[in-house]
Amino acid sequence: MSASAPTQPASKKKTPSAKPVRLEEKFAKLGLRSDMDFVLHLPMRYEDETEIVSMRDAGFRGGSSVQVEGEVTECDIQYRPRRQLVVTISDDTGQVVLRFLNFYGSQIKQMAVGMRVRARGELRHGFFGAEMVHPTYKMVNEGAALPTALTPVYHAGDGVSQTMLRKAITNALNKVQWYDTLSPTLLQELGLQDFESAVKLLHNPPPDVDQYALLEHEHPAWERMKFDELLAQQLSLKRAQASRRSQGATALPVVGALTQAFLATLPFKLTGAQERVLEEIRADLKQAFPMQRLLQGDVGSGKTIVAALAATQAIDSGYQAALMAPTEILAEQHFRKVAGWLEPLGVKTAWLTGSLKKKEKEQANALIASGEAQLVIGTHALIQDTVQFAKLGLVIVDEQHRFGVAQRLTLRNKAEAGKIPHQLMMSATPIPRTLAMTYYADLEVSVIDELPPGRTPIVTRVVDQNRRDEVIERVHAAAQEGKQVYWVCPLIEESEALQLQTATDTHAMLSAALPDCRIGLVHGKLKPAEKQIVMDAFTRNEVQVLVATTVIEVGVDVPNASLMVIEHAERFGLSQLHQLRGRVGRGAAASVCLLLYQGPLGHTAKQRLLTMRESTDGFEIARKDLELRGPGEFLGARQSGEALLRFANLEKDQYLVDKARNLAVQLLAHDLSTVEAHLQRWMGHREEFLRV
Ligand code: ADP
Ligand code: MG
User: What family is it from (predicted)?
Assistant: First the structure.
């Protein structure tokens, strides 16, 4: 759970004294506070409730949602397969069963036999004939008027119904102070609608509206909203950039003795891509305003070495560098690797994580505060208040998307007074540039698009779990040949305890099946020291098969491991599978990844596994992931703040992006009051996220 999660206890039991949450608070959770917030809470989609379909005809409209109306003929609670409310309604042509898996007692009374219900939903043909599961419905009198226009559907939240939202929005539409942030002349030049009529149309579309254009966000009213939103984004990006530049950072210009000595010890040559991104980083570090660069590179592309070379530049320049990783296991890997490279060259390092003993923490803090530690490696313990850096020049954040916004913000307070440290963020989850720009201010992006030489591509097979015995045989054969194997246990999202249990069982099963192999077990509940012992043994090939939970997902680097088995691969997300698979294929040996699945597979799960089989290219996989999941989840949007674009699409609406960019430049130069008004309306409290 992220540190920025709400602090409410997760307990399901409601204590009698718990105060009911006020409606305002529920609205506030949706970001709805001022009248303008409500006005700009535009419909997510529309529903066509202008028509009632006879129950007989409804059966022929497979798939899409329909509206029917009829009298209740039966209303019962049934208990199989689980407690549910089952209501049968009928009209002259047939009957439809309404099924509610969650319901209130009041609904039973409401839908008593003889009452009239108007219900809409997807009609399916269940065991008992035509049925709708969880339809939206309302009680009506016979002959009640139908709406004449499309009905807007809003993004709602816990305890906030469409009706409540609609009421609050109507209210806000009536009392808000209408003004346009763009002048009539400007609107005419741009060929855009005025704000008030655009918003009003979107909330209450007239009956004769072009429905297709409305639904597809192509209506001129949507166009105005998209333009406004893009303009706000452009203004905000440009301002964030200006503010960041004015804040200043310490220039770290020296590529000196340490860097040279380090390069001389490397057993390999940097790839062309590594050289290129290193140049980009070096140039940034020489500037007296903070770098904010995202280093993207597929798993195994060699980001660590680049990060280490950025650190040596900071140290050569007389400043401290900090390297922060999201998990202890990954931080440890970095520590052993990077400290292993640099300590022999005389660099003084410190190690800091949450699990250190108090005394050890104090020692680390003292080294950091005195400036004696030139390189500090650890988890987010690094950015706690108690940690005071003497001369922090550079912060490197690995797997940056796993850190919350608040955590990244704290980093900025760690440099000398009035300055912010240079930031290098690393990610193996390639984020399309346009998307990255939407989430993080003026992020520069460097890409390592080349793997070190001598790698053989990983072969991936998708295997039915019935063939587990063959898989175990294969693991045995690999171990006999001196190769090493990861066996990844299924992800069990509902229960950490169950996940642990499964890992323990798998370890026992493999130990019994392969008595002549040494089998290790590593999971999230082990103490760091215990984890260390297992990982060390695996690194030294004293353990041949490592049973692991997803703790090994990132960063673990044992080049001799060349076979990976992932159980219940259908439960993992694409990028997670890609990360996991990246633990093999790190050495010269041909590597294999076996994705065990349990059928039958749903469409998305199947697509994911096929994508994994067909591609080892992280960018290709990320694209597919984006396609399957949509951008929201992609970046852990919950962590990185709301997506700043709700209506516009950077690719589809490119022509608007260009217009907005031009206008932003013009306004920033000549019309700051319009800039303020526009940002105030569209960004409000969200702008802070952009400055991170
Ligand atoms: P990632 O980008 O996934 O963090 P790493 O930095 O862990 O990748 O590098 C993966 C492996 O490749 C490591 O064992 C590293 O030492 C090795 N490596 C990195 N750069 C090169 C190179 N230019 N030539 C050969 N091997 C390299
Ligand atoms: Mg890495």
Answer: Belongs to the helicase family. RecG subfamily.
* Cα–Cα separations (whole angstroms), residue 49 to 52, 147, 547: 7, 6, 55
Q: Count Cβ neighbours within 10 Å for each residue of 509-535 and write b for 16 or more, e otherwise.
A: ebeeebeebebbbbbbebeeeebbebb
Torsion of CA 636, 642, 644, 647, to 10 degrees: 100
CB 113 within 8 A of CB 4: no
Contact criterion met (CB below 8 Å) for 281 and 291: yes
**Structure token pair of residue 634:** 């992609």
Report the pLDDT value the prediction gives residue 29, as an integer from 0 to 100.
82
* pTM of this structure: 0.63
Nearest-angstrom CA–CA distance, 351 and 370: 15
Which pLDDT score, from 0 to 100, does residue 205 have?
Answer: 93
- CB of 448 closer than 8 Å to CB of 296: yes
Ligand nearest to the CA of 278: 1
Indicate which atom in ligand 1 lies nearest the CA of residue 271. 23
Alpha-carbon distance 592 to 471, whole Å? 12
* Mutation choice for ligand 1 from 305, 306, 329, CB with most ligand atoms inside 8 A: 305
Ligand index nearest the alpha carbon of residue 579: 1
* Side-chain half-sphere exposure of 225, counting CA atoms within 13 A: 25
Concatenating the DSSP letter of every residue in 606-644 gives: HHHHHHHHH---HHHHHHHHHHHH-HHHHTTTTTS-S-S
Q: Which domains does the chain have, with CATH numbers?
A: 51-146 (2.40.50.140), 257-448 (3.40.50.300), 458-615 (3.40.50.300)
Whole-angstrom Cα distance, residue 30 to residue 28? 5
Measured distance CA(625)–CA(634) in Å, rounded = 8
In this prediction, residue 343 carries a pLDDT of 97
Nearest CA to ligand 1 atom 20: 302
Which residue's CA lies nearest to atom 12 of ligand 1?
A: 302
- Spell out the residues 6+ positions from residue 161 whose beta carbon is closer than 8 angstroms to its own: none
CA distance 181 to 184: 10
616: tokens are 């080892």
SS3 575: helix
CA of 334 to the centre of ligand 2 (A): 8
Residue 454 CA, closest ligand 1 atom number = 25
What residues are in contact with ligand 1 under a 6 Å CB criterion?
268, 270-271, 274, 297, 299-305, 428, 452, 557, 559, 586
Q: What spacing in Å lies between the alpha carbon of 557 and ligand 1's midpoint? A: 9
Q: Average pLDDT for consecutive 10-residue bins of the chain (692 residues)? A: 36 48 85 90 86 84 79 91 90 92 87 94 79 89 88 83 91 95 95 96 91 87 94 83 79 96 95 97 94 86 95 98 87 90 97 91 95 94 85 88 60 73 84 57 80 86 92 94 93 71 90 94 84 88 92 73 94 85 85 91 87 87 72 37 62 82 92 92 60 38
Q: Across 375-470, where does the E strand assignment appear?
A: 375-378, 392-397, 422-427, 444-448, 459-464
By most ligand atoms within 8 Å of CB, the mutation choice from 294, 304, 327, 429 for ligand 1 is 304
Within 10 angstroms of residue 501's Cβ, the number of other Cβ atoms is 13
How far apart are the C-alpha atoms of 315 and 117, rounded to whole Å? 73
What is the DSSP annotation of 287-345? SSS--EEEEEE-TTS-HHHHHHHHHHHHHHTT-EEEEE-SSHHHHHHHIIIIIHHHGGG
Ligand nearest to the CA of 325: 2
**Closest ligand by atom to 302 CA:** 1
